[in-house]
Design brief:
mainly alpha; 4 helices; about 85% helix; elongated
């Protein structure tokens, strides 16, 4: 095993364990937790056997395993940023609705007696 593998495998195993524990503990995010477990398993396999990424890449029509990993990472980042963008839009909308509701309540009932 290389030095990188000796350092990476325990870290990946810990992340895999944490994700698996989260999968078993919190049922609300079953799909997301399952995806994390699968991602950590794939990462562990790629670190333990780097040639496996080349085999998968060639099966998908890509020449090198490193290229497959780069393409996958870029796609993952784009999807992740899009999901964060959607969540921020949702939170902004909820804050707007809450602020509007509080303003209407204060206009109806008078200003609250809270100290700023």
């Amino acid at each position: 095993m290389s030095l990188f593998q000796l350092l990476a495998v325990p870290f990946i195993a810990a992340m895999l364990f944490a994700s698996a524990r989260n999968l078993l503990k919190v049922r609300a995010r079953l799909v997301v937790s399952t995806l994390w477990v699968l991602l950590w398993l794939a990462t562990l396999m790629a670190v333990i056997d780097p040639d496996s990424t080349t085999q998968v890449a060639r099966a998908l029509g890509i020449q090198r395993g490193a290229d497959l990993l780069v393409y996958s990472a870029v796609l993952g980042f784009i999807v992740g940023f899009y999901l964060v963008y959607l969540k921020l839009r949702q939170l902004s909308r909820e804050i707007t609705l809450l602020t509007r509701e509080l303003a209407m309540r204060d206009a109806r009932d008078g200003p609250s007696t809270r100290e700023p």
